[in-house]
Amino acid sequence: MVIIGAGVAGLSAGCYARMNGYSTTILEMHTRPGGLCTQWTRNGYVIDGCVHWLVGSAPGHPFYRLWQELGVLPGPSIIDREVFVRVEGEGDKALVVYSDVDRLQAHLLEIAGEDAGQIKEFIRGIRRMGRLTSAPRSIAHWPRVLRLLASLPGILLGVLALRRWRSVTVSEFASSFENEFLREAFVHVLDFPEFPMVGLMMTLAWLDQGAAGYPVGGSQVLADALERRYLELGGEIQYGERVAEILVENDAAVGVRLQDGREERADVVVSAADGHATIFELLGGRYVGERLQRTYDSDPIFPPLLHVAFGVARDLPELSDSVVGIVFPLHEPVTIDCQRHTSIAACAYGFDPSLAPPGKTVLKVMLPSDHARWAALAEDPDAYRSAKEDAAAQVLNALEQRFPGLADEVEMTDVATPITWARYTGNWQGSFEGWLLTTKNLGRQLPRTLPGLRQFYMAGQWVVPGGGLPTAAQSGRTVVRQICAASRKRFVTSLPAPIGGEDADV
Ligand SMILES: Cc1cc2nc3c(=O)[nH]c(=O)nc-3n(C[C@H](O)[C@H](O)[C@H](O)COP(=O)(O)OP(=O)(O)OC[C@H]3O[C@@H](n4cnc5c(N)ncnc54)[C@H](O)[C@@H]3O)c2cc1C
Fold this sequence. Notes:
alpha+beta; FAD/NAD(P)-binding domain; 506 residues
């Protein structure tokens, strides 16, 4: 089996393929594993380009077993933060989205007693959705069938909650509040106001359960653990090898051609690389089908990011207990990357001492950006550099409004643009999570095979709207299961020693 890409999906597919006896080679164009799950170092500061929360970080959550099989957990220490996000208003007004749902309810009711009905329904929905992924602790030792039966009422309530909320967006819910501050603040809880409430509520349910923590050491720790597990399972991986074409004979994938012209033959090809490049470049657009073509023509993607990080000689404790940081208003609006901002979101990594020298912190701002603009700028290296410098200066102007004196404490500045993401990971327009989750595509998956093409499969964030680390890892598992089923093989999984040995998946 040849697997294109050593991101989370490709490494996961490689691990499960090895567990099931396939001989595997992963071809990765970069010089290291992880794809989007990555970090880099500047002037003694480590900039994490990915993980804020790892869904499945605690035993009992269904994804925990996936991370165990992949050798990721147990491993790094996991930090559960008290707050998801803090949205600040004028004066000392603040909406604090606590990870603890009881505390969140009390806080929301304190802000807006007049909206008690909506608030209680929202909290009840979070609790019910949480029951979809957790069985009561008291029955943890029961046999599997009894556990399942005992969980059924909870699952039913969870499904009803999903149905109730599935067509509601964050901005629609925000506008339902009578309280003016809550109405304005709630829309900033996520970067994407049109995101489905279900996505937000599931995340809050997992935070409440302590199952969406942060792995100390960050993204590289995850990527390295995955690579280690794959190599221990006997897989082969080649770095610095860009696949230029998927070889097809008689409508069956038979291998790949690398950029330098060499060929690598295979019985099965799995692409865990960017979906658009796989379908329209590596396969020349010959196996698309109407439905998939429509998706690629019109469905929205997560916009690429302008990612600005500062290493500051300050520890910013006010940001250290939060998953995604704070959103604060700007008294003097700033224009960054051609967009005017009246508020801005920032996060800091004070909770992970491995990312900065003692007493210092990485402070980060991520803004939706425009790939076409940066692609045009990149034609002229001087213009590109100067646009990056300008963006960093404007972001710093904005941060100074909330953290006076910060500019004097900046020891490191790093700007990554949509071109950076596209160059290092090959993702279409530099998108950071593939297809944007919407109320229309919620729960939907794209096909992992292409019409008319045999011996070929796809995995990763471009086959599951919403993307994310567990989704990518799960898709690697699912694709190998599908490959096993196609050749009537029993799909098996194993846990790394010393956790356990081989066991069958049912
Ligand atoms: C800023 C940021 C924050 C995020 N935060 C979180 C978070 O907190 N929690 C979470 O769950 N998710 C988060 N994500 C999303 C998550 O990182 C991704 O959804 C996930 O890593 C996607 O994995 P993947 O394997 O599908 O794709 P990728 O990571 O894109 O992997 C694809 C791999 O294929 C390689 N490749 C591409 N083309 C070729 C080719 N032609 N030949 C050879 N190799 C090729 C690439 O180099 C890459 O290594 C975040 C992402 C970003 C950018």
